[in-house]
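Researcher: Sequence of Cysteine rich repeat follows. Predict its structure.
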Amino acid sequence: MDFYLNVYFMLGLLNLQTITVYTSNMGKIVENSACTFLKSKCPGTPGWDDFLILECIQSDSSIILDDSCQHIVWSHTRSLLDNNYIQQITSSVCENDIRNLNCKVDAAAGTYLKCIATNRDDITSFLKECGKAIDDFGCGRLNINSSSQANTIICLQDHFSQIEEDQIHFCRKFPPGSGKVFKCLMQHYDEHLTDKCRNHLLRRQRMISEDYRISRGLMRACKEDIRKAHCRRQTSDDKSIRLAQVLLCLENLIKNGTRIDSECEAEMRDHRKILMEDYRVSPEIVDGCSYDIKRFCNDLEVGGKTLHCLMEHARGKNSKKRIKDTCMRALEQVIKESDAAEDWRVDPVLYESCFHVVKIACKGLTGGDARIMTCLMDNIGEEVMTEECEDALIQIQYFVARDFKLDTQLFKACKEDAKSMCKADSDWENPNKQNPERDPLVLPCLYRNAFHEDTELKLKPKCFEQIKRVMRQRALSVDLNPKIEEDCLEDLAMSCFDKTAKGEELLCLQNNMDKLQQQCKASIINYTESEAEHIELNPYVMKNCKEVMENICKDELDNENGDVMNCLISHKNDVVVKNNNRCRLSIEHFQLISLKDIRFSYKFKIACKPYAIRFCQNEKTKAGVVSCLSEKIVNDTMQGLKSDIQKDCRQQLKAQLFQQRESIDYDPKLAKACENDIRNFCSAVPHGSAQILECLQSTTKQLSEPCQIELFKVKKEEITDNSVDYALITMCADTIEQFCPKYEQEHVLDCLKKHKDETGFNKKCRLVVIHRIIEQNSDYRLNPSLQENCKLDIRKFCGDIISEEKPDKELNGKVIKCLRKSFRQSRLTNKCEKEMVGILRERALDLRLNPLLRAVCKDELDTICKIESDEDDGKAEECLKASFLNRKIPTVACQEEVANLIEESQADINTDPLLQQACALDILKYCSDIPQGSGRHIKCLKVVMTDKSKDLAPECISMFKKRIEMYRNADALVAPESLEQLYTQVIGSPVKHYFFFVILMVIGTIFVIGIFCGRVSRRHMIIKNK
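Model: Prediction complete. C-alpha cells:
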C-alpha cells in the first residue's frame, strides 16, 4: 500500500494542481464516526480531502488508529487506487503518453497505477513538468542500462525527505499539503534546522520571489483580489510574475482605501516578511549589493541582519564607508516591496530588537497601519527604549524619510493634499507611470504648506497633525532629514566626525554654523528657523522639558510661533526649571543658537525684520541687530525724538535684551570687548543671573576702554528702559509688587528709589537700586531726570567738559562735579537746583552713593570712621565732617572733598539731612515763609539763633553751632569762587580787621600816589602853557 501512496505522491509532484479533491461514495474519512478524531490530529486540512488526510496519517507517526478506523482508512485507500479514478487524474496532463502505454482500465484494482509507475520513464511530460525542480535541486541523473528516470525521481524524493525530517521535528501538527508546513519551518529558520532543509527553504523562497503562483497559500487567499485589481495585467506579460509585483499591486489597493480579504492580508504580510528575512530572496539585492555585502557585511549570518548591515552603511557619513548607489536603489526597492514601515512584524531584526520595548511602551496596540512604528518613534530617548531597538528603527526610518508614500499614516492623511498642492501621484504604486519620481519632493512641499498664511493653501487638519508628528519624530537625527544629510555630508565628516550619539550631529552643525559650507549652512539655517517656530522640532527641549512644559507652559502648548519656547525662557529661573538641569541647559543652548541669526527668534523676526533691513543692514547676527535697534531707540529717547520703531518690535526687542542681560554669553559683542576684564576681575563669578554684568559695573574705572564703551551702552539701555534690567527686575520682583504695583516697568527704578529706605524693602533689591543710583551719578546721561531738568545748566556751565570727551565714553562723574560747583555758587536754575539737592541728599545719607568721597577718604574711613554697616544713615559723612572740624583729616584731597560737602550743605540745608532733621521743627516754625535754596534757610537759622526772643530746640542749636564752625573752616580751606564768597570769607575770618587795615593801606597808598602824580602833571601843564 505504501508503494502505491508514494507513487501517488510522485504523480502529485508532477503537478499538484492536477489532483482534485476526492470524495468517494463512502463519504470522507473524517466524516465517519470512527475517524472523527483525525480532525484534531490534522487541523487545517483543506476540505478534509481524503488524499491529504492519508498524507497526514502517513507522515505523522504519533497518530495511532484503532481497528475500526484502520478499516475505514484502508477502504478509502483502496478506493483512491481505483483504476477509473487514476485515469481521471492523470489524463489531464499525461493523456497522450498514457494512451501509448496501453494500460487497461478494466483490469484488477491497482493495476492501472502499477502500469503507469512501471512505464513512467516513457512519460515525456515528466521532464516538461519537473524540469525546473530538477534544475533547482540538481537532480538530473543517468541510468546506463536504460533511459529510465528512476534515479532522477529518487533524487527528488530524497530532497523531500530531507525537509520531511525537520517538518516532523518542528511542525508535526501541520499536515503536509495544508500550506502551513512551509510557514512553520520558516518560523524555525534561525533554530536548529538542518543545512539541507534551510537550503531547500531558501530555494523555495527564491522560486516564490520569481513567481508568486508557486505559493499555494497566497494564490488561494488572494486569487479573487488579484483578479479584481488586474494585478497580472498591470505587472507583466510574462508567464511568471514576480512576488514583488503582486505585493505592490495589492498594497496599492489597500493604500487607496479598498478592503481586501483578511486571509489575503495575512498571506501578504507573510510574504513581505520573506523579502526582509533573507536578502538572497531579492534578485535586486543579490545583483546590486554583492560588492557591498562582501565589503561590509561578509562576516554576518545571512538573512535580515545582512539587510540591516547594508542599511547602516547606507547612512554612513564617510563616503568611503557608504554603499554604492546601485545597492541604495536596491534597498529602497526592497523596503517599498516589503512595506516594512507599515508593520513592524515584517522585519525580523526589528521585531527581535524591539519586542520587549513594544511589550512595555506600546502595550495594547496591534501591529499594522504603522501604529507600532509610530509608538516606537515616539519613545526614542525614553528609558524604555534600548539601543538595539533604536538602531534597527532608525535604519528603517532612514528610507521611510526619503519616500513620502512609505509612511502609512502620513500617506493616508495627506494623499489628497499631496496631489492638489504638490502634484503627487494619487496611487501608492503605479507601474505604468512615465513621469520622474516626485516622492522625495512631496514631504518638503507639505512642510511648506503646513503653516501657510493663506487659509486656502493650508493643509487639512488630519494631514496637518501627521505633518507635525513626522516633523517631531524626524527631528531626532540628521539621518531622518534627507535635505540636511545630503547637503552637510562633508561638513559632518569634517566638523562632527566625533559626534556619534543620536542627535549630536545636528547640535554640532548648529554650533559650527559659521564654519559650514554655504549649502549646508543654508539647510541648517532653514531647519533652525523652523525649530524656533515649532517647539516639537527641538528633540532636546521636547525630551528634557516635557514635564516642565506641561506644568508651567500648558496654555502655550497648542500654540505655534515660538510661544512655548518664549514661555520656557521666561520661566528658566523658576525653581521647577532650576531643579531640572537638562531642561535648563536645553533652553540655554537654544538661546545661544538663536543669537546667530534674527530668523531663529520667530516673533522677533516677524516684528523687527523691516527695521533691521532699514537701520541695521550691516549686522549679520541677531545679537548685532538687537544691539543696533536698541541703540537707535536709546538715542531717539535721549534726544527727545519719537522712535521710528513701532511698539511690536520694541516689545520683542525688550524681550531679547532682557535675555541678553541674564548672561554675558548671550551678548557676544560685550563678551568679546570685556574678555580680558572678565578674566582679570570677575573670573570667579558665575555667568548666570546677570552676575558678570554686575561685577563689571562695580569695577568700571578699572576696565579697558573697549569694555567701558560697550558697558556704557548697556547702562544706557537699562536706564532708558528698566524692564530690560535683568538684575533689577528679578531681584526686585516681590518688592515691585509690594511698593510699585501700578508703576510701568520701564520707569520702575524711580519708584524703587523713593521707597528704598522704607521698612520691609528687600535688602538685595535695595543693593541693586543703590548700584543703579551710583551709575546714574557717574554720568548725567544715565540719569534721565537730571538730564531733563539740567540740560540748560549743563550746556551753559559744563559744555566744555562734554565737548572734550568721546560721545560713547562714560564721563565718570565729571558733569556732576561741574554741577556741584555751580550749585555751591547758587548759579543753577530752580529745576536743576532741586535735582542736585536730591542727589546730594542721597549721597549724604549713604556713603556708597559718593564713590569720589570713598576713594579720596579711604584711609580716614578705615581708621577714624569705622562704620560696620553699609547702611550708615549719614553717620560716615558726619564723622568726616567732625574730623574735619577737629582738624584730624591728614589727606589734603579728603579735606577738600569734605569742605565741598560742607559748602554744599551751606548752600541748601536739605543736602545736610542730619541738620535738616534736627532743625526741622524750627525751620517749619520760623522759616516756613522763606523759599528753599541759595542758603536761605541757613541764614534764617542764624538770624533766629541771634534773636533772644526766639528759641531754637537744644538739639538744633548744638548741631547748628558745629555747622557754623564747619562753615568757617571750609571757607578757610576752599578758595572763593566769586566776590560774594570772598566778602563772606573775609567777614567770617577772625583776623578780618587785619584784612580791613591792609585794604585801607592799599587804598591810602593809591590816593597819595594819585595826589603826587596829579601835582606833577599840573606843573608840567602850567610850564607848557607859558
